[in-house]
Hints:
Layout lengths: L8 H18 L3 E4 L9 E4 L6 E9 L3 E2 L6 E7 L10 E7 L8 E6 H18 L5 H6 L2 E7 L10 H8 L4
Parallel strand pairs: 3-6
Antiparallel strand pairs: 1-2, 2-3, 4-5, 5-8, 6-7
Amino acid sequence: MTTSKKGTLNEVGMAGEFHVLAQLLQRGYSGHPTLGNTKGMDILVVDQESGYMLKVEVKTASDAMRARTRRPWWCWTLTNRAEQIGAHNLVYCFVHLGTIGTLPRFFLVPSEVVAEDCSREHSDWISAGPEEKRTIRTDTTIRNFWFYDDDNDYENNWELLKQKLENPPA
């Protein structure tokens, strides 16, 4: 049976989290879903040897690809919280569900990179706007994290988890 229903935001988000959990299991990681509205993390990854924990924030979209006819780029909408939670033990996993019959695409990004990019992009967007719109632009909580498809090291960057787990902060 095929359907054109895309699902609610909650359903899309849950689908992404379960796909990430499957990927973690296949790679030998112990991943634990928070199964709730835990701020700043959807999955907790535990290093069984050291006990060190890594938080994974999953952001899922059914259609995150932009500008298909020009230089393709990916974009996920976040909130202003993304600017404030750059931490060594937090990784974002951006999931693109894509079309029926294809596997999702996974992009793993350190939260420090997401925080810095969101902050810079938002500041640039405020500055680029007309003077009379700057207050409105400053007050919005919407942030976008984006990158070009042909210029990123994020896709399937599962090695990032290993690096973070093996090098916890002192």
